[in-house]
Specification:
Blueprint lengths: L3 E6 L3 E6 L29 H12 L28 E4 L7 E4 L5 H18 L16 H9 L13
Antiparallel strand pairs: 1-2, 3-4
Amino acid sequence: PFYGYCRPAAGGRLLFGIETSDREEWRVSDMDFRLDDLLRSTDLRYTEAVLREKIKENFSSYFPPIKNIRWESSKTGLLTFSMDGEPILGPVAEVPGLFVGVAFHSGGFAYNPVSGLLLAELVTDGKTSVNIDAFSPSRFSNEQTEKYLAQTVQQKNVAKRRH
């Protein structure tokens, strides 16, 4: 598997990304957590320099100029997964007025435009142009959700769909 992506960014830049599926789960334990903490890994397999080299390695056969690329910055993020591996899209019954579009795992770039459109339809019209019931937050009970969030699931063991 390739486990990476590239897309154009503002100012003639390119944005490259890589997944680290064998990385241990990262628990967010308090409000002081910062995503950039993930770039300061104590695991030598995941230092910023190692990940940049991995991106070069993964992309060099498709995009040879990457071998000599100058890195402007690095960012990090967390992939989110639902219990069944499908996105969660729609209103949260317990919080009137709250609509969510989450758990797209690594497919966010693909899902964002359509999920934004569907959520906008739902918020403004109260319905969507296609049926999104299968992605409703209410498909999981509070008890199921609490149990799922309490367990440790490695990314490589999560139901991950490539749509």
